[in-house]
Amino acid sequence: MTLRSCILLNCSSGLQLTMASVCTMTAPICLVENQKNLLMVNPEALKILGNISQPVVVVAIAGPYRTGKSYLMNRLAGQSRGFPLGSTVRSETKGIWMWCIPHPSKAKHTLVLLDTEGLGDVEKGDSKNDLWIFTLAILLSSVFVYNSMGTINRQALEQLHYVTELTKLIRTRSSPSFGEVDDSAEFVSFFPDFVWTVRDFTLELQLDGRPITSDQYLENALKLIPGLENLVVTYVDTINSGGVPCLENSVTTLAERENAAAVQKAADHYREQMAQRVSFPTDTLQELLHVHEACERVAIAIFMEHSFKDDKREFQTKLLGIIEKNKEDFLLQNEEASVKYCQDELQRLSEPLMESISGGTFSVPGGHKLYLEALNKVKQDYELVPRKGVKGNEVLQIFLRSQAAVEASILQADKTLTDGEKALAAERAKNQAAEKEKELLRQKLKEQHQIMEAKERTFQENMAQLKEQSERELKQGTTLDAATKANALVSL
Ligand SMILES: Nc1nc2c(ncn2[C@@H]2O[C@H](COP(=O)(O)OP(=O)(O)O)[C@@H](O)[C@H]2O)c(=O)[nH]1
Ligand SMILES: [Mg+2]
Question: Is the Cβ atom of 89 under 6 angstroms away from ligand 1?
């Protein structure tokens, strides 16, 4: 199907966002328009749907024209006006009209009313597109109302039988193995509740002289539909040849697009928050890891909130991979910032020492002692520098290593010391250096351990959020928000 977006100039919408997520439209607008055999989606309507963050209840109505659909939908909205009634029908756009209002009885829910227009209207006759609209209305809704008048007639039954065939098809496609027709939770979650309303019902509810319930009447009516086989076969063939949206495809397409977007959103959030909350260099590695974990936790939650049917955890794994890569970049950035800061500080603090060395201050009897004092002063001052970061010790160590040769030559040139004392001092310097190296190694091991622990916590966090999500899904059933569904279906 080829679908293009269009801006409808003839529909006026009044959208108010009374609270962050509460959507109240003063009038319905067109959602999908059937224009010259092309179904067009109104971007304005999609925008409105996209802005709804509350859970939505989508009630769609379809059925022959002039049976009171719009009237009934207006009543559901608690209004006497809204969807245009009666004589105005002909001038109105053929397609699906949408009206979003706060749910009248379910707090913090939005009620999305979808009214179909022009179905079965001979003057606008285009049965193929009628079916498209019919199908879209079913797939988009959580409650589907089929409205007819007087009695259950042949046209109504034909249309409705199409619904039941579509149901079978959806069931077949979503079953894990062909032939299993057990009610899967998946199927239930994609197929709306069905209500048939008959205006001015004129028949008696009787079968072979016995009173029957309205449900039994409907079931019986659906059983025998002469000559419908061909129609059904035609429909199903069309569906199978890709002419009508197959729910499995649309859900897969939807899931992939939604999940890719969820990964992007979550990864962007992680990066933004890290950049915002971390000032490089951090004092310790742990400090950075804590911020990372907090940002990652929120990123995973964002992903969970926006992802949809990521059954194989493919996209979640991708997200974790991206975060891990980003974390490594942040760790590196942190190290580089620390190195740079420490080198600058050390250079500043060791300037007097360097000047003394090149000025020959320590090339005198007793020079070695003076040198050690000056070097200690540098070390002490450096010690007091705040927030040196993860590379603080290493930068000092590299500096001390570079000074070892200078110290050795000052020691050898010092005439106040005996050979024995010089040997002892050299030995002491060597031991001190070795001790520092060991300390550095210990720090590195500790940091590696901290990184491993953080990874373990990430794993645990991920598992906990997954568990929470599946429990939530189990409770509520997987629901699609209307905008997402609409997007998925029209993108095919
Ligand atoms: N008597 C009666 N008239 C109704 C009822 N529902 C709708 N109407 C009228 O029937 C006409 C067609 O209704 P409308 O809702 O526009 O039908 P739609 O084409 O199915 O949307 C309008 O003039 C309505 O006022 C009803 O339950 N009883
Ligand atoms: Mg109407």
Answer: yes
